[in-house]
Amino acid sequence: MALSAIILLISTGAASATTSSHQFHYIYSCYESNDVRVDVVFDDVVVAYADFNKEEMVMTVPELPKSIKEWKKRAYEIAKTSIAHCHSTLITAKGADPGSPMRQEAPDSFVYTRYEGEENVVNTLYCLAKHFYPPTIIFTWTKNGVEVTEGVFNLRYQHSADGTFHRISTLTFTPQEGDVYSCKVEHQASQQPLTRTWELKEKKRSSVSPAAVFFIVSLILCLMGIGTGVFFFNKQPN
After folding, report:
1. 108-199 in CATH: which number?
2. Tens digit of pLDDT for each residue in 189-238?
3. Is 0.85 topped by the overall pTM?
4. Fewer Cβ close by (within 10 Å): the C or N end of the chain?
5. Measured between alpha carbons, how far is 175 from 196 in angstroms, rounded to an integer?
């Protein structure tokens, strides 16, 4: 199988304005398609990525130390240098061993909702694919077997500590009884697509009809009335 991606990790240390120290590093993802991805990881959390179209680093978390925010412009300049470096590294790697097999890790997937499912109430379905490599993965949502594209949003890839990736796809929807939603995950390391389904759980209904309840309550009241009458009858003097 042809080599399609190489992940390069360059780590540097940094001290924050507080007394505690932090670690940040760049993760370069180089692809045969000439695409290059650069993420900045701060204390094991992806805090920014390079947007080469906008020519800037895009922050992915709202709260960051001031020193990291000031470093944003310099970080993009560093990210730009990775483009040529990635291309030359790919050429060298393929020339050294053109038949080298690429690492393959098949994903696991799970489907869950943001809120407890309730009919006619807007909700969000999450489809999580984790522990996969290389990072290319495809999500497909269906409703009752028909593909759904409206309300679908795919979050960015995230790096895991073991070098694999995880990603989430979301679907905004309104549950209806009888509807079945599915999330299909396709990845080159999987022998077949992974499909997870979700449907609204039917609430348990009482097996006793209202008429039966009325009859039982009436019977109990009748028996209580008879019992009370017998009690007072026995209390009367002879």
Report:
1. 2.60.40.10
2. 999 999 999 998 876 544 555 656 555 656 566 656 555 554 444 555 55
3. no
4. C
5. 16
